[in-house]
């Protein structure tokens, strides 16, 4: 029996096609079913960043990671500063890409929590800090911020610990020289032989001595040292009246309630070095040179005249006065910090010191001054025959035998020889007084002759 090869081939093809139509869909269905049953949960050791997502699906892992990020943000976990003086860093500087992190994570091992830094917000934040970061430190800060946020850790960024903060050269960026005057000042200088001031750290004078006079003097020299730097003057109080040993414009008062303190505003460390040569002292600030040129300028010095106050006192003798208080002129001056950079010159007023004038006080007597008593000198009057002041030696007897040369027969005391009193002046100068009507005698009988006048007849 002959086989028709052509027909056999056709039937074989039809059989193969029929088998393919039956089994290919079955295999596809089996393959799809097998995929549907593959595990889509994270393994027991899987983590997204530091958040465990064991046994969770990708969809279930998202709210758990979000919850962990929110809880971390509320703790204020990030700070910046040196030692105990730290400032919070807002977590808004970083953005978490949670959904992208879960999608990219392995179900077996998990994956990293993807974080990006907001460049503009970070630069704005660093610009508000009390210290100035170098470009290298800004880069280091951003790297630290990402690594810490990825692990949702709590950490502090200390710029003083970065490699850029260490300057082995230690160039002199500011200096001042002066002479010590007491043992207390020398002890303070010995304590300042080498003082480290880390980035953002404070330095205050009372740490090195508590004697008010010595501390005020050394504090004024430190004020002059730091005025020529970008360091922040945190605390400084002038005296009410400028002491003779302090420089006008750099006056610092230190006592139980006041101190002098500065802050290192740079992101690098500096050192205050004090060297002595007998009583001669040099204070130096050493470290990385500043980006800008900083100088201190004293301007607008003025002298204020004093006034004189007059007071009155009853305890002083009339017409006297005393200088109770000497007057002293007042003073005022302005201290500026001038910063020059590529952007130009910035002039900042650091302080305006004003010392009021001390008035002069003069105390005068409040008692009324009596007019002076004038005593006239004795007068040497010449003898005048026309007056009534002749003496017995100057008299000569008249025609009637009288020893009085007056017309009325009166004596020097104004009485007549017969004992009667005559008026000083006549009532009528042109008419003489009648001699027949004399005044009644004060004593004796008017008809009897007056003693020593026996030759004179009776009047009337």
UniProtKB/TrEMBL annotation:
The keyword Signal appears for this protein: yes
Domain G5: 292-368
Record keywords: Signal
Keyword Signal applies: yes
Residue ranges with Acidic residues bias: 381-395, 450-460
Region (Disordered): 363-460
Xref: InterPro entries: G5_dom
Protein name as it appears in the record: VanW family protein
Positions with biased composition (Low complexity): 408-449
Domain of life: Bacteria
